[in-house]
Write a structure and sequence with these properties.
Length: about 250
């Protein structure tokens, strides 16, 4: 049997299971990968919002990463919610020169609207964006990071996501220095069950990169996975409900 790609997800825990580390594990597993985790924070949250957050010490986050990489190893890394500037720098220190595909989802605000990154943490994102193979900001995150021109100036690829923009079509645009933009456009799936879409997309891209797919094919496959999971949402919760990772085949 061919060994599954080893994917290390560095992110926060979502107690309700729809986003964060829980969405990462489900996504990696359903796409045939082996999921490992370095948890940055634990949250009390549900489909209505985030009720509490406890951020872990940066040295402990780094220890989790070292434990995974020094023994099992990895084929790709996904970075999500970080929780503090200290954690962001610790992650950058640990991954510097690792030589693996890194997908960075610069999480700032949860789907429910809860703020998950302060100004100092966002400023610390700079190091990670330069390390990343791909950064995946949504509309608001892209604006906070300086818009497309600033992303290109950093010298790494950026997938500008359009899921939270207005309109009947969802447009995602791949921006890379020295390349023409590549645009994917699909009809919007009208649903309130969108909790964890960004986590799921970035984990799916990382898993497919870990399998050896080129970046464009990894993005295409990840978009299809997210759309299938949106269509299969089980309808849980009173707010922004979780997607149906379990039903994607």
């Amino acid at each position: 049997m061919t060994a599954p790609p080893r994917i290390l997800a560095i992110a926060g825990s979502d107690s309700s299971g729809g986003a964060g580390i829980q969405a990462d594990i489900k996504t990696v597993t359903m796409l045939g990968g082996y999921a490992m985790t370095a948890i940055t924070a634990v949250t009390a949250q549900n489909t209505r919002g985030v009720q509490a957050v406890e951020v872990l010490p940066a040295r402990f986050v780094a220890a989790q990463i070292d434990s995974c990489l020094s023994d099992i190893g990895a084929d790709a890394v996904k970075i999500g919610m970080l929780g503090s500037a200290e954690i962001a720098h610790a992650v950058a220190d640990t991954l510097e020169g690792i030589g693996l595909p890194i997908v960075f989802d610069p999480v700032m605000v949860a789907t429910s609207g809860s703020v998950l990154a302060d100004a100092a943490t966002i400023a610390a994102f700079e190091r990670l964006m330069r390390l990343a193979t791909l950064t995946t900001p949504n509309v608001a995150e892209l604006a906070a990071l300086g818009r497309p021109e600033a992303m290109l100036a950093r010298g790494s690829a950026c997938l500008a996501k359009g899921g939270d923009a207005e309109g009947p079509e969802v447009e995602d645009r791949l921006l890379r220095p020295g390349h023409e933009d590549i645009v994917w456009s699909s009809p919007r799936i009208e649903t309130r069950h969108t909790h964890g879409t960004g986590c799921t997309l970035s984990s799916a891209i990382a898993t497919l990169l870990g399998k050896g797919l080129p970046l464009e094919e990894a993005i295409e496959g990840a978009r299809q996975f997210v759309r299938s999971a949106l269509a299969a949402a089980p309808g849980f919760g009173e707010g922004h409900g979780p997607m149906g990772h379990h039903a994607v085949r």
